[in-house]
Model the fold of this input.
Amino acid sequence: MTEYDYWKIFPRMPKKVTIGDITVRDGFQHLEQFISTRAKTFYAEELIFAGCRNIEVTNLGNPYLMPQFSDAEEVLAHLRSERFKKRCEKKGINLDDVCITAVTIREGAVDRAIELKEKGIGPDRCLMMVSTEEEHHFANSGTTLPVYWKEAERCIKKCTDAGLKMCGTVSTIWGSPIAGATELQDAVEFTKRWLEIGASDIEHADHDGSASAPEVYRYFSMILDQIPDTSLHIAHFHETKRVASASVLATLQAGITHFEATLGGMGGQPANFLDDCPVPGTGEYYYEDPRYVGLTCLEDMLVQIDEMGIEHGYDVDRVLWLGRQMERTVGKRLRSEAAINGRTLKEGHPKFARPGLKKIKEKLKEKPGQNWPAEWDATPVLPEPYRP
Done:
């Protein structure tokens, strides 16, 4: 007989997850319009108020390359301010429980993070990134993998000495947008290497939406078989083919408990044009259509996980509202369906009912809830050819 209990079929699947938000960094970096500092701090604040406890808010790299983050220090200073701390306290939030991350791809950015930490406005956590496919890695970092690994080792030591965490990202796990297919085992070895040199946790990233659900399940099963501490692993999916929700489900089935997402499914390769001017970014775009490169939608992922009965810590309705506000901020329709259609309501939508059903049933002398003609048997009888 078929087992109907989902958690018995997938015993590693968690009953509670952590969902980090990276809208203010990854979500905004792809936009070809500058998002005001006030808007950035508004969404960072509101996401924290809605339940986010792991939030990525800026990139500390050279602002000449990515001027979207020319206000990095202002954003961080705002989140470290006494005013914001008091606002959190009024809402029962201890700001010490919120991990604030800044992306620091190269050593200069790490040094900047440490300097800001010394000023009292730095992040709690930095992030560096390698790709298992070297052409993609070179496009993002400008250096070879061996050189970058040595740089990362130095940076992790600096961060450790300064009291900062360092997340190590592994990208192109399921494929590269530049060189194509990759090997899953390479990403497992890269994960081990990050941990060997002292990374605090690992972001496992599908940066171009190459992943398929069976391969996602296979990869994360390989990871947890060899590195079983789930607190070390974060799943990061981009949505390019409308299949990322299947990847999220496969990741849950494998036993991963930590995910990342953005409002509206924004994000992608840093913009090479901002407002009215070309900017360096990370060079030419390596995708065909800029509308289909962002992450999994926070709104949709939350609804998916919430309706599975998995604990997540967010105010879902507040996040759906934020998603609708974000569309006004960026001036266009984003990619969340849940932000528009809402959650599945157990009580339904009585306002959409067609008038007159009750009167018709009374006229026909049908009882409330009667599904079959009165002369039929109460229980259907399945014909012999269709029985198991």
Q: What stands out?
A: The longest helix spans residues 145-162. Residues 17 and 336 are 21 Å apart (CA to CA). The chain has a mean pLDDT of 95. The chain has two domains: 6-341, 354-386.
